[in-house]
Amino acid sequence: MKTGMGMEKARDVRSTTAGRQGFGRHHRAVWLTSALMSSWIGLGCAGSNRTADATGSCGEGRAGAHSVNELNALARVIQSGMRTAMLAGDGLTVRDFVQNLQQSSTGVEVALYSSTGEHVYAPKFPPPSQDSLPPHVREVLGSGRAAKSGGKTVAFPLANEDRCKSCHPTGNVRAVMSLEFARPPSTPEPSELLIPFGTIVEAAFQAMMTLGKANAADEFMQALPKEVPGVLTASVFSRDGRPSLGDGFMEVPPDLVKRAMTPTKAFSAEMKDGTLVAVPLPNSPRCLSCHKPSDMRGAIMLKLDPKLVRDETAKFLLTSSVQHVMLTGLGRLTKKFLHESATSGLFTNLTVHDADGRMFHDMNWKPTPPPQIAEVLRTGKNAVHRGGAHPDDVTVIVPVPNDDKCRRCHDEAGSIRAVIAVKGSRPKPSLLESAASVAKSP
User: Fold this and answer.
1) Which residue has the higher pLDDT, 284 or 432?
2) If DSSP codes are grouped into helix, strand and coil, which group holds residue 21?
3) Which residue of 143, 171, 226, 425 is most buried, as measured by CB atoms within 10 A?
4) Residue 260 · residue 250 · CB < 8 Å
5) In what order do the strands lie in the sheet containing 153-159?
6) Which residues pair with 173 in a beta bridge?
7) Confidence band (pLDDT; 50, 70, 90) for 288?
8) Is 347 helix (H, G, I), strand (E, B) or coil?
9) How far apart are CA 127 and CA 356, in angstroms?
């Protein structure tokens, strides 16, 4: 049974090794990119039935456009690299890998789209002008303090703590989160108004456990009472009805534990020392890589102060949850966590702007992909698009299947989890020059 012992030590180790972890991830991405670019030379020439000459150009002049075979080969190489890193639970290396390709002189443009059509890991656009930002976001970026707008929206900074600086090296503010609160629904049981807090904790817990980060989940559950006003204690109960993560001494009446161990909706119950919010955890397919087959794998138990201030608790709970999710290095699963938190019923809008004012997440935003990307997402078939800035431009578009191994993280409906678009440019460098340029990428 776990207690709080050792958690501070683990936190210290994380903060002192964060820089080395970031350094190692960067070099893994460069190595992966360089190795796969070298593989591209052989694949591209094999696809075109030619042998690479001393410059690695497959017998084609520098001024020529990339062939469809070469672009197809590069798309397959990128897909292989993504899969290798993703299945190792290293989403941030995939980000660095794609950015290395974008910054190198490969003579191609690479774009990656999610299953929703969002262009992910795209090059950062210039910061927006201050005048274009919502007033409350502008105020928080300028003062570093929380601000309100219109009585319903509160914006607050996410502090750039020392433990964050392996990924966010500069500045005191890492981002600005804005929350627009929904009107509380009328309900016969006031305790039911607290269930959305359990939904947010579940979203963070699921994000960490998806990649097997049990120690991070344990630290998160133990931190909640310290970091979030209104949370009295928090634990995750195993199927045997005992607390296994978080507060190892949390006591819950046996009848409520038994109810939480069935595939039912989250529920609340009044107790003599607080309000219990229980969130059952069904054993979904993505959990089976760690958990044995069964209907349930446990339940999240929160004991909350019935007199908590809803808006204040929501603000601190999201701040704590984002912090712990980000520190586990989950990459784009952070956006999934934000989306699931936003749909808890507490908010009508939730946005996150980065420290320069760029929009990072908006719960109400729907991406509109280019028509050719939307078509591949719809059909699941490869496509070749000709034309663009130059009449000879060619873009090869390849779907990335969402197979069983991928569904551990990508559990959304549909057989496609991403689309890779590789566009050839003119004039093209040789393949050996392309591989060398990647090795020099920052």
Assistant:
1) 284
2) helix
3) 425
4) no
5) 147-149, 153-159, 173-181, 347-354, 359-362
6) 159
7) low
8) strand
9) 6
- 3-class secondary-structure state, position 392: coil
Region of residue 142 (left: phi > 0; alpha: psi -120 to 50; beta: else): alpha
Own/partner contacts of 40-43, CB < 8 Å, gap of 24 or more, are 40/70, 40/73, 40/74, 40/77, 40/431, 40/434, 40/435, 41/431, 41/432, 41/435, 43/73, 43/74, 43/76, 43/77
User: Quick one: CA torsion of 220, 224, 228, 231, rounded to 10 degrees?
Assistant: 150
Contact 425, 109 (CB under 8 A): yes
Report the distance separating Cα 117 and Cα 121, nearest Å. Answer: 13
Q: Residue 334: its pLDDT value, please? A: 82
Question: Is the whole-model pTM more than 0.85?
Answer: no
Q: Cβ distance 201 to 224 under 8 Å?
A: yes
Cis peptide before 427 (omega within 30 of 0): yes
- Tokens 């296994």 belong to which residue? 244
**Token output for 398:** 């390849």
Dump pLDDT digits (tens) for 410-436: 666 677 888 989 888 655 555 445 544
Question: Are 254 and 321 in contact, with CB atoms under 8 Å apart?
Answer: no
Task: Give the span between the Cα atoms of 18 and 29, in whole angstroms.
Answer: 17
Q: Where are the alpha helices (DSSP H) in 268-329?
A: 310-327
> Distances from the Cα of 66 to the Cαs of 49, 72, 153, 399, 419, in angstroms?
14, 10, 51, 20, 20
Residue 231 dihedral angles phi and psi, to the nearest 5°: -90, 115
End-to-end CA distance of the chain: 45
Going by the DSSP 8-state scheme, the letter that residue 163 receives in this structure is G
Q: Look at residues 413, 415, 414, 409 and name the one whose alpha carbon lies nearest to residue 289.
A: 409
Quick one: which H or E segment has residue 362?
strand 359-362
Q: List the strands of the sheet with 296-304, edge to edge.
A: 243-246, 231-237, 296-304, 274-282, 267-271
Q: Name the CA radius of gyration of the chain, rounded.
A: 24
| DSSP 8-state assignment for residue 132 | G
CB 380, CB 399: distance < 8 Å: yes
Distances (CA, A) of 25 to 18, 21, 87, 94, 339: 11, 6, 15, 10, 26
* Structure-model confidence comparison of residues 167 and 439, the more confident one: 167
Which token pair is 407?
A: 């569904």
Average pLDDT of 14-37?
Answer: 46
**Token representation of residue 235:** 């634990």
**Of the candidates 110, 197, 179, the residue with the CA atom closest to the CA atom of residue 351:** 179
> How many CB atoms lie under 10 A from the CB of residue 52?
17
Q: Cα torsion at 60, 61, 64, 67 (round to 10°)? A: 10
